[in-house]
Amino acid sequence: MSIELKNVTYTYSPGTSYEIHALKDINLNIPDGQFIGVIGHTGSGKSTLIQHLNALIQPTSGTVSYNGEDVWAENYNRRALRSEVGLVFQYPEHQLFESDVLSDVCFGPMNQGKSREEAEEEAKKALLQVGFKEKNFKKSPFDLSGGQKKRVAIAGVLAMKPEVLILDEPTAGLDPKGRDEILDEIAALHREKRMTIILVSHSMEDIAKYVERIIVMNHGVKTFDDAPKKVFAHYKELEAIGLAAPQITYIMHALKEKGLDVDTSAINVDEATTSILRALWKKEEDHK
Ligand code: ADP
Ligand code: MG
Known about the structure:
The protein is α/β, with parallel strands linked by helices. The protein is built from eleven helices and ten strands.
C-alpha cells in the first residue's frame, strides 16, 4: 500500500504569460505508516505537491498512483480516494461552513453515506482526539480561536477515517503553545493509529522533533528526501535555499569547531545533551 508519484510535473496557466512551473519531475513513494515532513520556502511547491496526493489536481505530465492504481485512470474512484487520503488545508476557514462545530465535522462522514447518528459518533470521536472540548461542540465554527478552528478542520478530515492524513501548515499563525499541542496531537494519531502522516511546514524546528523522513522542496524540485539527520547534514545547502536547520544543529557544529568532539548529527536536546556530556568526560579523561 503506497502513494507513488512518477515524473510528475505541474504547470499553472500553461501556454500563457502567467505560466508557472510549480513542480518539476517529482518522483516519490510514500509507504504506509510513515510520518513525513514536507518543507520548503513559500512558493516552493509544497501545497501543489500535496494536492496531487489525493487527486485534487491532475499532473500536467507524469503519473500518480495509489496502491498501484493510476488515480487518473478513466474509471478510478477519486471521491473514495479523497476520503482515504484526507487533506487539511492551510486556511481552516476555507473548510468550515456549517452553523455549529458538530454539524461541520459530520459533513464528511455523512457525505460518505453515514446517517446523522453514525456521523455524530465519528465526529465526536474525532473532535475529542484532537483535544476539542465537548462543551464547545455546539458553538459556531466562526466564533473559535485560530487553534480551535484548526482542530475542527482536522477533526472534519479524521471523522472520515482516512488512511493517510495530510496537513498543510497546520501550525501557521498559532502561538508556540498552540503549535506544540496540535503537533503532539498529530504525533499521537501516528503513534496510536499507525496513520500515515504528511506534515507540511516551513519550520525545521517543528519537523525535526516529529518526523522520520523529510522532503525538501525548492523551486518545484525535490531537493532532499531522507531521514532528518541526513537532511540536516546539508545545513549549509539548506541555508542557501532559505531554510535553516534546527538550532541544535548550529550549536553542535559550533562546539565541534571549538574543538569539542560532539556528534554534529544530534537533532534534539536529549541527543545533544548526551553527546556534549560524553565529549566533556572524554576530554577530562584525556587530561588525566
Ligand atoms: P508553497 O505551498 O510551497 O508555498 P505552492 O505550491 O502554493 O507553494 O506554489 C508553487 C508555485 O505555484 C508558486 O510560484 C505559486 O505562486 C504558484 N501557484 C500556486 N497556486 C497557484 C494558482 N492557483 N495559480 C497560479 N499559480 C499558483
Ligand atoms: Mg502552501
